[in-house]
Amino acid sequence: MKIAVLPGDGIGTEIVAEAVRVLDVLDLKFEMETALVGGAAYEAHGHPLPESTLKLAKESDAVLFGAVGDWKYDKLDRPLRPEQAILGLRKNLGLFANFRPAICYEQLVGASSLKPELIAGLDILIIRELTGDIYFGQPRGRRTAVDGHFPGAEEAFDTMRYSRPEVERIARVAFEAARKRSKRVTSVDKANVLETFQFWKDIVTEVGKEYPDVELDHMYVDNAAMQLVKAPKKFDVVVTGNMFGDILSDEAAMLTGSIGMLPSASLNSSNQGLYEPSHGSAPDIAGKGVANPLATILSAAMMLRFSLNQPEAAARIESAVQQVLASGLRTGDIWSEGTKRVGTREMGDAVVAAI
Amino acid sequence: MKIAVLPGDGIGTEIVAEAVRVLDVLDLKFEMETALVGGAAYEAHGHPLPESTLKLAKESDAVLFGAVGDWKYDKLDRPLRPEQAILGLRKNLGLFANFRPAICYEQLVGASSLKPELIAGLDILIIRELTGDIYFGQPRGRRTAVDGHFPGAEEAFDTMRYSRPEVERIARVAFEAARKRSKRVTSVDKANVLETFQFWKDIVTEVGKEYPDVELDHMYVDNAAMQLVKAPKKFDVVVTGNMFGDILSDEAAMLTGSIGMLPSASLNSSNQGLYEPSHGSAPDIAGKGVANPLATILSAAMMLRFSLNQPEAAARIESAVQQVLASGLRTGDIWSEGTKRVGTREMGDAVVAAI
Ligand SMILES: CC(C)[C@H](C(=O)O)[C@@H](O)C(=O)O
Ligand SMILES: CC(C)[C@H](C(=O)O)[C@@H](O)C(=O)O
């Protein structure tokens, strides 16, 4: 088994280092190889996703990813910007199924913007399609408008699209996941306006017939954005497209108040996966040793479970994290009165010790 | 001056009736004419936006709109569904500028999901472009995929697009609005992924140079969805496209906890406008006389201010609503311990009396 370790930019290197230490202490049989990605790769090789990094990722069973991006790359041409690396990895590895849990840990309820009774015990799984939709649809670009409100004017355009097999496979992923949970799926669409999402809704409904034990409902994306705020605990598994999933999974993550705790997994059809924290590269605190490594450590646990077939090792990490939280250690992002503030390294130490 | 009154479906008729009573008592010189729209129009004329209704709306200075929609129309072909009426009105009247205030009234802070300190005093103005983007972009439909992940498969697609003048005019609306407020605009885009929104960002930046007194910043839509939850009061004027605006304006409205209080205005370039509550037709409580008419009454106030050039009359309505809230009257949606629960009609009576 081989893991590609891609720390990336900003706090990426610090948090991935802790996850690697946690993996090391488990003493499992796999190889880890590190490579540059994002801004760091651009600096060294002139491209955010160099051929060598992509090759390593492809030949590995899993990618452990930190974060990419920094304000200083904002002026680069789009294809050279750090976030293109993540889009490139998703596309080239065919990572169509993104798992974004939004969990509110008992000890961290106070960190949420929401009233405790609305958020305590939250455990949603957002499944976002990750290789289709308007993210990758062609054609796209700039041109002269031939119709619309201002024919003859300069315009820019993108193409939203989903094909039947793309919707079918992500729907199956959602129904299968729901079977292991509370057997409820909410499919989020905008079928009242978009052809793509009427099609999406039709197909999810069809696939749902193969899972009569799973309850399926449909919700418009605007309503979903509202219901997440109003009563997040009403959701269990949510499945949606790439663009809506981008927005809703971040909204749901922030509802918990502890985005520094939330892992994610992006899988392809052979369970090869990319694992990364739900938060970003936080250039403002990079290098200060204060970032929360737990989302990355929990991403490593997801990796063990989904791609490396080591569910016991995954569970060991997860319970170690629970223990550390229970012991009162907190990085700055989740710190509150009465708990002990620690840095990235100390937090990693504590998880290692608990294992 | 002429107002087209389109109550629509569900609670639409009840809440619009109260707004009409409030307008009547102001004793201003305008004509009101009522017509069917949405499901009600479909039942009577076989179309949610009959020619006669569209004609009335076009020749009026303003449209006072209730709400449309009911589960029972879900099985109709898309062009016949109630919500097509609202899309048709926007398109045919050229209502490109949608104003969606998200205000948290002092007395209603407790109704929010958010902790009081995060939401008390919230006053955001979301300006959503309303006639462009993927809502109306052509081509759209179903076809056989020629490329992508599954060439040969059935697929559905839509076109996202914005032309330069469309972005310029909505940007100007936002900067002008900001000048009358705290002189800050946040433009929300997804320039890191979409050609359309890189173009959007470029043009908003250009237009911003004409408004050196207004501070402009840019935010990705996923981050905006998070920041709205984390620190909504950091926003003032937010400007964005039709699709992102649909999602974010509903999220922001729900953050206040009192969506039954939030009006909206949709204007064209000659200040002709459509005014409607931010909430929907609520078929579950329709006909029970319990719906909150205040969002519709406040929409009538926006109408007086924006389309009918009667700012004093608008202010009279708004202060009457404030007075009624202060007196402790509440419809069910905003009721809390210690306040008096009233129905739609009594709430209307109270506003009329306060005027
Ligand atoms: C960086 C960006 C391209 C990316 C996305 O939009 O998918 C990010 O927001 C995410 O959700 O992983
Ligand atoms: C009913 C629907 C077409 C509409 C929209 O998406 O614009 C609604 O959600 C709104 O925001 O007014």
From TrEMBL, chains A, B:
Substrate binds at residues 90, 100, 128, 222. Residues 2-351 form the Isopropylmalate dehydrogenase-like domain. SMART domains: Iso_dh. It catalyses: (2R,3S)-3-isopropylmalate + NAD(+) = 4-methyl-2-oxopentanoate + CO2 + NADH. Its cofactor is Mg(2+); Mn(2+). GO terms for molecular function: 3-isopropylmalate dehydrogenase activity. Mg(2+) binds at residues 222, 246, 250. It holds the Pfam family Iso_dh. Keywords: Amino-acid biosynthesis, Branched-chain amino acid biosynthesis, Cytoplasm, Leucine biosynthesis, Magnesium, Manganese, Metal-binding, NAD, Oxidoreductase. Gene3D superfamilies: Isopropylmalate Dehydrogenase (3.40.718.10). PROSITE patterns: IDH_IMDH (PS00470). It is an enzyme of class 1 (oxidoreductase). The record marks 135, 190 as: Important for catalysis. It comes from the Bacteria. It is found in: Cytoplasm. Binds 1 Mg(2+) or Mn(2+) ion per subunit. Pathway: Amino-acid biosynthesis; L-leucine biosynthesis; L-leucine from 3-methyl-2-oxobutanoate: step 3/4. Its EC number is 1.1.1.85. Catalyzes the oxidation of 3-carboxy-2-hydroxy-4-methylpentanoate (3-isopropylmalate) to 3-carboxy-4-methyl-2-oxopentanoate. The product decarboxylates to 4-methyl-2 oxopentanoate. Homodimer. This is 3-isopropylmalate dehydrogenase. The gene is leuB.
